[in-house]
Amino acid sequence: MLTAGEYFATQDGEVLYTVVGSCIAACIYDKERKVAGMNHFLLPGMVRPDEMLSCELGRYGIFAMELLIGELIKLGARREGLQAKLFGAGNVLKFRSSDGDITGSNIRFAKKFLELEGIPTVKEDLGGKGGRKILFFSDSNRVLLKRFDTQREPRFFQDEQTYKKRIFQKGPEKSRVVLF
Fold first, then answer.
1. Segments forming the whole domain that contains residue 61
2. Residue 158 covered by a domain
3. Distance (Å, rounded) from C-alpha 176 to C-alpha 174?
4. In the chain, % of residues over pLDDT 70
5. Which CATH number is 68's domain given?
6. CB contact at 8 A, 60 and 15
7. In which element (H, E) is residue 40 found?
8. 13-17, 31-35, 170-174: which has the minimum mean pLDDT?
9. Residue 177 pLDDT > 80, yes or no?
10. Residue 5, pLDDT score
11. Which stretches of 75-178 are DSSP H helices?
């Protein structure tokens, strides 16, 4: 199961699975080369320069998309053969109006990114008020989708709630150092 910030590419016909609320999952594939992958991101791209080496870049759409596409190409996909399916951006978390339109920003970002990269979106299920369980069959590029009410199944959104609190908290942030 992919969680927020993760991506995975394969040519082995695996079933990729995730659950999204306000996040977006992008399933990108090259049908001819039989290479496919999925990512799961939380925000379009609000990384401050001092976070570049210490944050989980896959949580941000701009990096999650580039990381996934890079992995697909490493496995033999051709950029001009890529197609996409987009899911998520449900209005499931209560954001303050000062936080901006998070779900709308996710949708606009994903569509614009794919348009600029010349990757057609062949299927999408975006917006609304519920969550989505997504199974992506990488051998056939088929998606099984189940929509559900987040009020009845809140356990699926604990990661999103925790991340939302961390991103939008007020006050001084702790500095992290990454040694490499």
1. 7-148
2. no
3. 6
4. 68
5. 3.30.1330.200
6. no
7. strand 35-41
8. 170-174
9. no
10. 84
11. 102-117, 158-168
